[in-house]
Amino acid sequence: MGSLCDICRTIPFREIQENPDLKIKRVKLGDYDDVNQRVSCPFCCLALQSIRDVADRLGYSDTAEYLRKDCFGTSIEVQWRQQDRAFETGAFPLRYTTGSFPSLARVVHSEPVSIDPIISCLEDCEKGHQCSLSISDEDVEKLPFLRAIDVRQMCVAYIPPSTRYVALSYIWGGAPALYLQRANIREFMRPGGLKTYDDEIPATIRDAIELVRKMNLEYLWVDALCLIQDDDEDMTIGINAMSIIYEHSYFTIVAAGGITAHSGLAGVSPRNVSQVKGEIVPGVSLIEIYPIGDLLEIAYYNRRAWTFQEFHLSRRKVIFHNNMLYYQCMKGSWSEDIQGVPIESRIRYRALAPTRPGQMLYEFRLIIKDYTIRDATYQHDIVNAMVSIYHKLLGREYGGHLFAVPVVAFDAFLCFYNKDDHHKFLERRESLPSWTWSGWRGDFYWACSSDDNETLLWIADSTWIVWYLRDSYGDLKLVWELAQGQHK
To answer: Residue 306's closest CA among 222, 248, 228?
Structure first.
């Protein structure tokens, strides 16, 4: 281990380790090129390694370019953030491994994940958080059947909606090698019916089955094997019931680290954990920790349309990402790389629920802003993948929609525009109408009030257009009538 440079000697590492409430001023390490020359200073090297790690995750081949574009300059500063108990260097935070305070960093080894902390989190949530929902009679009407994989008998089975089951959220990345069809449903529903096709089951689904089995649970819901993929009626029922399926799952396995269904779950499958860490002075070590909210912001998982509602409708999540394991419910969280209870990680919409009375249309527009930059293999799925979000937030109170535009506020939702930035144009989704936000990809704004009552009053008093669309037969219909046909 080398010795600290003159600048880093001014940082009271030992004192902060014992007294995290100590206030210190920002320390300027200097320009990136200068810091890069201090190869013998362990903290400068650790800070640079951390910054390079972030730049690489964001797709930058040149670290200096990342600093210029995302950090507004190549000067590197160090700040001790008391509320986070971590050093901030313009990258992921650096946290102590030992000290007199909670939320310390933990070294994670490349070995199978332990399910004991997850089981403890779930038990604590059941006792104290009450994040789970009881399924209502209305929900049962919308979900006339529920299939799940029986992980013990390795078959697809019908189960009552009130049964405890786990759901899986993952990226297909092209159709899985195996999926439920009208031709194979009888075979798959026989005990051992899926065992015959074990080699064809994608790794992510196979690992999820193994995880559920290890946790002594019985059922796993996976879209590819629980909805009949070549049956339009079956698929429509499933798509319209996504909010029920994910909201009422015991928890959802989020395969956020993969790019296809064949990626597997790192930690159930073999994994290779890599952490940025180093000893700064004898007895004082720091590790770069990865807040799951920040990781998800830049994950491929976060670019896909279908995963949006799956993630945000789930009230408990076991997240596989970055070769590590994370847990999150509506009131608590746990991270494999942090000892004790982690400082809250920035994740928007922990579980989707109306939070602003009288501002639900406004809240829906905020969600659209996050959603509409996502992609779908089939562009018309942009609407399908938003239907459950719509029903959850607006359906009961505001009724039907057309292409995810609330008909009750039809005029207001037509008034969208992109950010005043000549470098960020809206991109057309050709398979969808141009008058709806779902027909475009980009950063949206709306020229209407954040107060629902004001918006609806404006529509009632200040608009005079009667809107019609042609139905599938070419006949003119009022948009309200067409929307009533879509709303279920």
So the answer is: 222
DSSP string for 161-190? TTS--EEEE---SS--S----TTTHHHHTS
Tally helices (H) and strands (E) across the chain: 20, 24
Measure the CA–CA gap between 457 and 234, rounded to whole angstroms. 40
For the stretch 241-299, pLDDT in tens is 888 999 999 999 999 999 999 999 999 999 999 999 999 999 999 999 988 888 898 89
Residues 6+ apart with CB under 8 A from 95: 85, 86, 87, 103, 104, 105, 286, 287, 288, 289, 338
**DSSP states along 65-82:** HHHHHHSSSSEEEEEEET
What's the whole-model pTM score? 0.90
For residue range 153-211, list pLDDT tens digits in order: 999 999 998 899 999 999 998 766 799 999 999 999 999 999 999 999 999 999 999 99
For 404, the 3-state DSSP assignment is coil
Evaluate whether 226 touches 149 at the Cβ level (below 8 Å): yes
Nearest to 371 by CA among 335, 331, 404: 404
Give the pair of three-digit tokens for residue 370: 């996050």
Task: Answer whether 161's CB lies under 8 Å from 139's CB.
Answer: yes
Long-range contacts of 77-83 (CB under 8 A, 24+ apart): 77/26, 77/27, 77/28, 77/29, 78/11, 78/26, 78/27, 78/28, 78/29, 78/47, 79/26, 79/27, 80/16, 80/22, 80/23, 80/24, 82/20, 82/21, 82/23, 83/343
**Which has the closest alpha carbon to 78: 104, 41, 103?**
41
* CA–CA separation, 292 and 239 (whole Å): 28
